[in-house]
Amino acid sequence: MSSRRRFGFVLATLLAFALVAGWVTSWAPGPASPSVKDLPSVTRSPGETSPPAVALADLQGVEDLRARFNADQGVPRLLLLLSPT
C-alpha cells in the first residue's frame, strides 16, 4: 500500500470516528445536575460542627440487615454488598 493511500485511509478513519463521536455526544443525555441557584444553602451557627461521618456496619445475618433497614424509613439508604468471589 502506498504512503498516499495509507494517509487517505487514516484520514478517512479519523474523520469517521470524529463524526460518530459528535453524533453520540449530541444524542447522549447530559448530567442532570441542578444549577447553583437551585441548590439549598447551608448555614451553620458559630461553633456548630458538621454531622458525624457514617460508619459501615458489620451485619451478622439477614435479620440484622432487615432491622437496620426498617429502622430508617423515609431516609435514603445505601447498601454495600461485598462478596469474596
Notes on the structure:
- There is one protein chain.
- This protein has 85 residues and is mostly helical.
- It has a domain at 1-28.
- The chain contains 2 helices and no strands.
- It has helices at residues 3-27, 62-71.
- The protein starts with a helix and ends in a 14-residue tail after the last helix.
Low-confidence stretches: none
Q: Helix count?
A: 2
Q: How many strand segments?
A: 0
Tell me what portion of residues adopts beta-strand conformation.
Answer: under 5%
Class computed from helices, strands and strand pairing:
mainly alpha
The percent range for helix content is: 40-55%
Index terms:
about 80 residues; mainly alpha; 2 helices
Topology:
Blueprint: H1 3-27, H2 62-71
Overview in brief:
This protein has 85 residues and is mostly helical. The chain contains 2 helices and no strands.
